[in-house]
Amino acid sequence: MKKIVPIIAVFCVLLAGCSVKTYTPELRDFRQNASVEAGDFLYTCEISMAENVVTVTATSTNANGMCIVYNGKSANFKYLDMEYEIVSDKIDDTNPAKAVYEAFNAVREDFPDNASKTADGFRYDGKTALGSFTLLQRDDYSYKSLQFREANIAIEFE
User: What is the pLDDT of residue 1?
Assistant: First the structure.
């Protein structure tokens, strides 16, 4: 009996230090490098979102340096010393800045009901004009991928 009490005490102390880490889904502004695959076309870029504005800057192909800034109402295209603005309804839904913007807006509309815990983060499902999509987020709240199944568009974040 004398040996059991210290063993139980040590066991209780060891278990007291253990806790289950919980994660709560949270959509954050971000800036991450990404690879975008649209059909047979593949390119790299930097994608950022801040204050509900998405910016996509190409880092490969002949469009290297081209920047698209989308705010839900219009897109501003910038390349070298040229700049051009297009209203939202004239922009193709497959435009990467518009696609990311619309996906995050769709997630926010149903948030947090559309979030589910995965082994290494969260999964968000939704639908935009491009069709159904899945957004994966890591435990550190950085983004892992955004896939539009029907449109054959996949964004892999680094």
Answer: 54
Q: For residue 25, is the peptide bond before it cis, meaning its omega torsion is within 30 degrees of 0?
A: no
DSSP class of 3? T
Q: Which residues contact 55 (CB under 8 A, 6 or more apart)?
A: 46, 47, 48, 49, 67, 68, 69, 70, 97
At residue 28, what is the residue type?
R
Place of tokens 């497959």: 94
Q: What is the pTM of this model?
A: 0.83
Over the stretch 55-89, which tens digit does the pLDDT of each residue have? 999 999 889 999 999 999 999 999 999 999 999 89
User: With contact defined as beta carbons under 8 Å apart, do 126 and 116 qualify?
Assistant: no
State which H helix or E strand residue 7 sits in: helix 4-16
